[in-house]
hydroxymethylpyrimidine kinase (Thiohalorhabdus denitrificans), 265 residues
Amino acid sequence: MAEVMDTVAPPTVLTIAGSDPSGGAGIQADLATIAAFGCHGAAAITALTVQDTRNVHGFRVTPDDELRQQVATVLTDIPVAAVKVGMLGSADNARAVADLLAEYPEIPAVVDPVLVAQGGGDLAQADLAKVLQGTLFPRATVLTPNEHEAHALTGGETVPEAVADELLREGAHYVLLKGGHRHPEEEVVSDRLFSFGQEEASFSHPRLPDRGYHGSGCTLSTAIACALADGREVVESVRTGIDFTFRALRAAYTPGHGQAVPNRL
Ligand code: PLP
C-alpha cells in the first residue's frame, strides 16, 4: 500500500459568488485565485450566468433558501479563514448572506458589490443596490467597488473622499476605490484605501493597455481574501491582492473572441 502524506489543511477561503461558464470571472475566477494562493477553496453559488468573454447574456439567481443552505452547511463543517462575497444577484440573497455572516463576526469578509459586468450586462436585479447597504456593508472588512458601482451605491457621487465616507458610514470597515477607470490619460493607476475619516494607503502601478479585462475585480477581491486568510493585516492584504492582480493582468490571455482574462495560473 502506498504511504500517505500527512498534509496539514491549508486555510479555507469561502467564495459566495455567481458562476461564469466562460471561466473568466465569478466562482471560476475565484477558485483559480484561491488555488494560486495555496488555499482551499469552498464555493457557494448565488447565480448561474450565461456569458462568453464578450458579455453577459442572462442569469438565473439561486433561491435564497438554497443559498442559505449552501453557506450554512460549509460554515458549520469547515473553519473558514476568510470569505469573499461577489455577485449576489438578488436582494433576498444579500439578506441571506448577511444574516449568516452575522453569526461568524470573527471571519474577515471581502465584499465586491457586483452589479454590472465589464461588457455592460446586468448582474443584479434592480433592488439589490439599495439592500446591500443595510445588510452586507456592515459585515464588510473590505468593500471593493469599481467606479460604476461606487456611483450607483452613493447616488451618483464622484468625489472619491465623499464616496468613501458614504460607504464607510454604511458600515464597511475599509473601502478600496479602484482607480483603473479613472483618469485614463494618466500613466499610473492609483487604488485608494479608506477607513473611517482617513485615507489609509494608496497603491500605484503602471497603467496596462485597455484590453477590456474580464474578471479583474473578482481576482482582486478574492486575492485580498486569501491574504486575510493567511493572517495578514488589512493594508498588507490589499497590497498583496493588488500586486497579484497586476501580475495576472500583465500576463493576461484571450481565450475566446472577447475580453482578456487575468492569468492566475
Ligand atoms: N461575478 C460574475 C458571476 C460575473 O459573471 C462577473 C462578470 O462577468 C463578475 C462577477 C464581475 O467581473 P469583473 O471581475 O470583471 O468585475
Summary: The chain has one domain: 12-250. The first strand starts at residue 12 and ends at 19. DSSP finds eight helices and nine strands in the chain. Residues 134 and 169 are 11 Å apart (CA to CA).
